[in-house]
Structure formats: C-alpha cells, structure tokens
Amino acid sequence: MSELIKTIFKVDNRPADPLQVLATRYDPPPALNYVRRDNGYTLVFLHATGMHKETWEVTIERLYKLAASSQKFFIQDIFSIECPNHGESAVLNQEALKKYFENNWPTREYSRAAHAFLNAGRSRGAMVDFSKRTLIGIGHSSGVPALCLMREYSPRIQFSAIIAIEPGLSEMKTRNNPRADVVRQVMSAWTWLKKDTWASSDTARKELKASQPQASWDPRILNLYLKYALRIHPAASFPPPFNFNGLTTALTKEQEAASYRSDDLLDLGLEAYSIITREIPVHVVWATMSEVAPPVLQEVLEDRSLGRCPASVTRIEGAGHLMVQQAPDYVAEVLSILLSRIASDHSAFSSRL
Questions:
Q1: What are the beta bridge partners of residue 312?
Q2: What is the C-alpha separation between 327 and 353, in angstroms, rounded?
Q3: Which of 88, 82, 95, 77 is nearest to 34 (CA)?
Q4: How far, in Å, CA of 173 to CA of 227, rounded?
Q5: Distance of alpha carbon 38 from alpha carbon 76, whole angstroms
Q6: Which Gene3D superfamilies match (predicted)?
Q7: Are the beta carbons of 174 and 267 closer than 8 angstroms?
Q8: 283 in Cβ contact with 310 (< 8 Å)
Q9: Pair type for strands 5-11 and 21-27
Q10: Whole-angstrom distance between the N-terminal and C-terminal Cα of the chain?
C-alpha cells in the first residue's frame, strides 16, 4: 500500500474542448519528513499507451526517498497527468470519446490535455501557476511524443529538461524506409488479438498474471493496473438478463489501435523531438531488451547529423520496453541519477552567469 499523499485535480474546458483532464499530485509520505523547497523541481509524468496515471506511483514513492537521502536534487511537487481515454479519465469522458473519437486517437490529444492542465492557472485545476515552476517532463513510450508535441500549443509550456524513457517514436516516413511502420503494425495487430474482457476481478488477476506482458510486471504495478486500468463493462447497463457485470479495459481496443495509426508517432512527433533536443536537455533512457525500439531505431533518435541531440543516453541492461512496469524501483534510481545531473548542470550554468 502506497504511503504517498494523493490529490486528484480536474480541468474542464468544455465546450471549447470536449475532453476533461485528470491529474494526480503526489506528495511525499508524512513519515519521510521530506522538506520541500520552493525552488525545487516540479516533475510532470506522462504514461505509456494502455497505462494510467497511477502506474508511476511505485517509482514516485521510491524517488521521493532517494531525493530525501541524496540531497543532490530537490522536488517541490509531482504531477501525473492522465491521457483522456485511459484509466479513470476514460470513464469520465466516455460520451465525448464515443462522439468525437470512436475510431480516431492522435497522440497530440494527450499533448493537448497535458497543456490544458499545465495552463489552467491559479483559479482552476491544481491552482498552480506552472509558468513560475522549474518543470521537468518525464515521459514513457507514447508519453514522450506527447511531451514533445506540447511545444505546438500556446502559451508555450517551458520545460527545463525532459527525461524520455523508451520514447515511442519511429523513423520518418519521408525516408522511404519500410521499417518506419513495422512496430506500429505489430502493436496494432497485437491490440486486436489480446484479451480485454473478464468475468470478474479475480479472473482478471489470475489471467493477467499468467499473460504477457503483465506476467513480467512488478506485483505492485499489476495491482495498480487492476484497480485503475480496468472498468466495469459498459454492458452492465443493459437490462437483465442481458447485462454483463464483468470488467474490460478502460482504453478500448478501437482507440488503442487508432493511436498506433497516428502520424504523431512518426513525422510530427519525431520532428518535435528533434527540435526540442536542440532547445533543452533531453535525457534518453533505453532498454537493452526492448521489444519495441531496436538498436537501429535508437541510433536514429541519437543521430546528431539529423539534428537529434540528446543531452545523454542511458541504456538499462536486461530491461524491456515496459521497464516502468517491470522494474519501477530501478527506474526511480535512474531518474534520481539523471535529476542529480540536471541539477548539477543547472548549478554549473548559474555559477557562470
């Protein structure tokens, strides 16, 4: 059981934007006696496709403990913003999703949602003026292009640095490389084939524990998935005897498959990533056992001759694409090292001014 203090915030921009945005602020466990500093970092987490805002909890709790012990970087607060068609947000937005996005989901909708939350101001949402914070964006998989594409919205959200874990980007189609769509095709086919409905929570737990990729997850992450990534099946509302009171994934197969068709994962996302690596420090974290990002793709995202200039590249031995779910404590240790480096670089830069 997590000891983090959790507060959920909502930003509702309807009718201008049909999708409401949910985010959770995570404060340190009281027993940690963590002293927050007003000049500390505000960390903004964006999750991978198929996950939910709570998937970061184990990593966040460990990160607070590491920050308290190291004193090499300081955290003011942490927010995890949910993609509007995932988790709790999918239930909140179900009517709008059905009306406007039934078979369509561009990654930039996650960018738009995150921007709306961070731009809500002091009177709505978290009631924070994020323009006065030192923001560090931390994204996993499709959460990375969502962070990068945020640069297209006004007013600009100014991140001081970005940590990109297994970035969900692919080669540009304009390079006429057949590899560009292979990963997306595989992920789309896998989405249609995987099971998404269970008779009960006990059945879901038993079957997911024995299925990939969940079988390789940390048990605490699986518990969070069962609690937040699944929902009561919509057929529960049917009149008896036709109602079905089982569970299904909050993210529908239709929208998950649509997300892999989005060009935001190719030309647009990669272009935004390339530009951002030249504007601010972007620290990339790869898994050596990644099922999604082969070495050739990793090289593409590190190719300085193409204008892609990450500040650092870290490779995690033995980790897979879903390292946040498989090894959340270790991910926290990697984040701690990178945040310490960001703080050191910032301090060195400030001392030269």
A1: 283
A2: 39
A3: 77
A4: 38
A5: 6
A6: alpha/beta hydrolase (3.40.50.1820)
A7: yes
A8: yes
A9: antiparallel
A10: 46
Q: Tell me how far CA of residue 162 lies from CA of 102, 158, 298, 338, in angstroms.
A: 31, 11, 17, 10
**Using an 8 Å Cβ cutoff, are 36 and 75 in contact?**
yes
Residue 202 lies inside a defined structural domain of this protein: no
Number of domains the chain contains: 1
Q: Is 310 left (phi over 0), alpha (psi -120 to 50) or beta?
A: beta
Distance CA 275, CA 258 (A): 26
Residue 314 backbone dihedrals phi, psi, to 5 degrees: -120, 135
* Residue type for position 134: T
Single-letter amino acid code for the residue at 100: Y
Within 280-327, residue ranges assigned H as helices are 295-300, 323-326
In tens, the pLDDT along 241-294 reads 888 889 999 999 999 999 888 777 667 889 999 999 999 999 999 999 998 888
**Residue 275's domain is classified under what CATH number?**
3.40.50.1820
Single-letter residue type at 195? K
| Contact criterion met (CB below 8 Å) for 286 and 298 | yes
Report helix, strand or coil for 307: coil
User: Is 219 among the domain residues?
Assistant: no
What are the distances in angstroms from CA 145 to CA 11, 12, 268?
22, 23, 9
